[in-house]
Amino acid sequence: MPGGYFKRIDQSRTADGICAQIETLVLEGVLRVGDKLPGERELARRFDVSRPVLREALKELESRGLLVTRHGGGTFVADVIGDVFSPAMLELIARHPKATQDYLEYRRDVEGIAAAYAAERATDHDKALLTDIMTRMETAHAQENLDEEAESDIEFHNAVCESAHNILLMHALRSCYRLLQNGVFFSRALVYGLPGARAALLSQHRAVYDAIMAGDAAAAKRAAEAHMEYIQTHRLEAERIRSWEAVSQLRHAQRTESAEAPRDERRKPSRQRSQPVS
């Protein structure tokens, strides 16, 4: 983990100071779910505290559910976001198409707000991170590296919501992205597979990026909303194409099996005389 996350504890070097600093890093999204903390010796050095004081702080944070220690594996940021819905509710959501439309509608509105805030509030460091992600996305697109492009897509959306500098907005959107990554609503690969979709999505991300870089909140909001509207429309198209493909595969398999069967096992033709179809 890069240096600079953890600062020297100046006042009395107590466990409370360490707890307060790590709490803030988690709340602000600097430390994310699953991030591993440095080893005990290194962390004590960065905080400039004794190891017993550090252990006391880590134990307190673990009792609060912010950290989790894996035997022999180190200390990690706990799953502080958790599951927004129960397994039973997730099953219901996955089985009802309206829930997916509602999810995308919600994201359209919230991501539009996040992009507008990002255009107004993004710092130089925020912009540097967005630029790095945008560059990697464009490189992956040029190299036709779908996995890297999709990963950069997720990182870009996360970076935009982080650049909005609104804690509740950031954690709400992270919960949304988790549902998508877990495949609750639909697979992103569906939309990526449509002809021209990858180029269109890249162009949309670029529009959001350019507006944030320019500090144009209205343009950033419009670009983010247009992006989500594209996903809404083309997800339905992709679902239809997938359905057609599934049916055509079954039809082809049945026809092939029928053609290969012995003549006496094939379906007997109707006695009714065939009529032309046109």
TrEMBL record:
Keywords: DNA-binding, Repressor, Transcription, Transcription regulation. It holds the Pfam family GntR. One of its GO terms (molecular function) is DNA-binding transcription factor activity. Residues 254-267 have a biased composition (Basic and acidic residues). This is Pyruvate dehydrogenase complex repressor. It comes from the Bacteria. SUPFAM superfamilies: GntR ligand-binding domain-like, Winged helix' DNA-binding domain. InterPro entries: GntR_C, TF_FadR/GntR_C, Tscrpt_reg_HTH_GntR, WH-like_DNA-bd_sf, WH_DNA-bd_sf. PROSITE patterns: HTH_GNTR. Transcriptional repressor for the pyruvate dehydrogenase complex genes aceEF and lpd. Signal peptide: none annotated. Residues 252-278 are annotated as: Disordered. Residues 12-80 form the HTH gntR-type domain.
